[in-house]
Amino acid sequence: MYLAVDGILFREGEVLLIRRAGRTFHNYWALPGGRVEEGETVEEALIREIKEEVGVNAIPAAILGVYSNPERDPRGHTISIVFICNFSGEPSAGSDAAMCQLVSLSKALTLPLAFDHHQILTNFKRWLTTKETFWSTKVK
After folding, report:
1. Predicted pLDDT of residue 140
2. Pairing of strands 57-67, 134-135
3. What is the reported pLDDT for 60?
């Protein structure tokens, strides 16, 4: 089992997505994030992963939820804590990202998204008005 973090980097109605360069979900769009390393807090992992993948400084503002469906990642059971973040800096693709782009939330929901990121962004859309949190058995 793995522990991961994902970041919703949201600014002026747009969310920052990466286009995956790896073998899993190659060329699909995804939220930036990755695995938590031994000895790291989830916040430290989030800040590190976002810096590596999109070159910006993430500032965690809230937790959207915890996603633990054993089927969410074909590489193995991966639990992800999803943060909503502010950020500073200009995005540029780094590790694991063929490219990155700010897109409107409505457009993001029409793109081919990796893992369960469509569900996560759907939950985020709801969070914008309700501020509720989500987990794997409470996704709607």
Report:
1. 63
2. parallel
3. 97
3-state helix/strand/coil string of 19-51:
EECCCCCCCCEECCEEECCCCCCHHHHHHHHHH
Residues 92-137 have pLDDT tens digits of 998 878 999 999 999 999 999 999 999 999 999 999 999 999 998 8
Q: What is the mean pLDDT of residues 60-67?
A: 97
How far apart are the C-alpha atoms of 77 and 57, rounded to whole Å? 28
Nearest-CA neighbor of 96 among 26, 8, 21?
A: 21
Torsion angle defined by CA atoms of residues 14, 91, 18 and 21, in that order, rounded to the nearest 10 degrees: 170
pLDDT band at residue 139, thresholds of 50, 70 and 90?
A: low
What's the CATH superfamily of 2-135? Answer: Nucleoside Triphosphate Pyrophosphohydrolase (3.90.79.10)
CA distance 28 to 123: 19
Q: Which residues pair with 8 in a beta bridge?
A: 84
- In three-state secondary structure terms, 114 is coil
pTM: 0.95
Domain residue ranges of the chain, discontinuous segments joined by + = 2-135
